[in-house]
């Protein structure tokens, strides 16, 4: 196995120069062998690939951050080598059977995690860097399936450090790992529970990162485990609902004390309500005169605030923008619910905001814009809205 790993490294473009058809075939064959062997000698293969990744990345960083005497071909070779190694790692991790992990595997995973984090914590204005980041994200996603506790421990430890941190600009990259991991409903609940414990202890700047990361984790869960999401809609998960309820209240107090934070808080709050269908049903039905528990009065106020802010008479641009994002998230989330399930109140809520939302986003005489820095985000928002509207009402010809 060791000699195969050595051959794999020797065949990388950073060692051989630009790949020929023959060298590419060789590389693929060795890669396929490593993936197969990793099922039985996981630790050895992962350890070897991690060391190769470390060496190639050091080479790549030296080239990109300093003088470039070796020319662009060598730099390109390093870049392509990183892609090959990351892709191989992802395949090995995805191919790993779900077994109880041994201590040596856990140690190797920690080392790999440290290397992978370097690719995630980079500005992605360069398309090459973005490709590396996306591939590293896939590696982390695959890794977290079988080694969730190792990743969770790193996130939890960083949250603990940040809660006692006095640095001016602390590093939040470990919190952002939340955005890249594989979470089922149990793990999602665990993440939310951890956030509830730590959120009040964190600085405001950390709140934004954590909230955005948690929202991304919810979407990842809905994409990866749509059946679990469907089950939650039919048979609410009590543990999850309890976490959503507690977190909503914490976020609500943030939104009250810091109105500028609403663009981050509101979208997460609407997602938390969607994960609590019984609560959402009570709130929405209250508009028709049904009783609403005083315990949910703040949630009702939140929904009413969003409706007002997305409407034509809103006086706050900031709230209108926050409401637009929130309503698009609501519409998008509703597309994950079975369209035949007409009794789901998420659809009722969508219908109550959809006309105002479309008027806001698609008004030719007053184009929706959150500024130059958000041009692409605004385009994505409009696309999400348009696609969601079509999926919710496919026969609507408006």
Output the radius of gyration: 24 Å
Name the shape in a single word: elongated
Uncertain segments are none
Oligomer: single chain
- The number of domains is 2
Helicity level: over 70%
Run of helices and strands: HHHHHHHHHHHHHHHHHHH
Class from helix and strand fractions: mainly alpha
Number of strands: 0
> Helical element count?
19
What kind of sheet is the major sheet? none
Q: N- to C-terminal separation? A: 62 Å
Chain-averaged pLDDT: 86
Protein name: Neurofibromin
Organism: Homalodisca liturata
InterPro entries: Ras_GTPase
Keywords: Phosphoprotein
Blueprint (SSEs and pairs):
Layout: H1 2-10, H2 13-16, H3 21-37, H4 42-65, H5 71-94, H6 103-120, H7 127-146, H8 148-163, H9 173-176, H10 185-199, H11 204-224, H12 226-234, H13 238-257, H14 262-274, H15 277-285, H16 297-310, H17 317-334, H18 345-361, H19 375-392
Helix pairs in contact: 1-3, 1-4, 3-5, 4-5, 4-6, 5-7, 6-7, 7-8, 8-10, 10-11, 10-13, 11-12, 11-14, 13-14, 14-17, 15-18, 16-17, 17-18, 17-19, 18-19
Protein name: Neurofibromin
Keywords: Phosphoprotein
């Amino acid at each position: 196995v060791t000699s195969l790993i050595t051959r794999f490294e020797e065949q990388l473009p950073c060692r051989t120069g630009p790949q020929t058809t023959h060298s590419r075939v060789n590389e693929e064959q060795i890669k396929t062998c490593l993936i197969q062997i990793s099922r039985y000698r996981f630790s050895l293969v992962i350890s070897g690939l991690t060391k190769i990744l470390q060496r190639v990345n050091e080479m790549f960083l030296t080239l990109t951050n300093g003088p470039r005497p070796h020319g662009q071909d060598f730099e390109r070779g390093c870049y392509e080598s990183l892609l090959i190694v990351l892709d191989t790692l992802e395949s090995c991790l995805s191919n790993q059977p779900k077994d109880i992990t041994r201590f040596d595997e856990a140690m190797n995973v920690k080392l790999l995690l440290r290397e992978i984090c370097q690719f995630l914590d980079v500005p992605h204005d360069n398309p090459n860097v973005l490709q590396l980041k996306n591939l590293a994200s896939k590696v982390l996603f695959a890794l977290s399936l079988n080694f969730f506790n190792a990743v969770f421990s790193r996130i939890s430890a960083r949250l603990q450090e940040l809660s006692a941190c006095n640095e001016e600009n602390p590093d939040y990259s470990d919190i952002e790992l939340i955005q890249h991991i594989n979470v089922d409903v149990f793990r999602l609940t665990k993440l939310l529970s951890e956030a509830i414990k730590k959120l009040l202890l964190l600085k405001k700047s950390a709140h934004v990162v954590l909230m955005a990361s948690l929202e991304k984790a919810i979407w990842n869960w809905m994409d990866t485990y749509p059946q679990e999401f469907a089950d939650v809609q039919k048979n609410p998960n009590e543990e999850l609902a309890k976490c959503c309820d507690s977190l909503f209240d914490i976020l609500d107090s943030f939104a009250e004390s810091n109105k500028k934070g609403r663009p981050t808080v509101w979208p997460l709050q609407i997602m938390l309500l969607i994960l609590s269908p019984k609560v959402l049903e009570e709130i929405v039905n209250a508009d028709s005169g049904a009783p609403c528990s005083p315990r949910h009065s703040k949630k009702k106020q939140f929904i009413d605030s969003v409706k007002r802010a997305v409407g034509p008479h809103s006086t706050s641009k900031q709230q209108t923008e926050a409401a637009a994002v929130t309503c698009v998230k609501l519409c998008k989330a509703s597309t994950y619910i079975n369209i035949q399930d007409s009794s789901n109140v998420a659809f009722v809520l969508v219908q109550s905001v959809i006309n105002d939302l479309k008027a806001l986003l698609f008004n030719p005489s007053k184009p929706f814009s959150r500024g130059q820095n958000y041009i692409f985000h605004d385009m994505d928002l409009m696309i999400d809205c348009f696609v969601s509207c079509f999926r919710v009402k496919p026969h609507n010809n408006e």
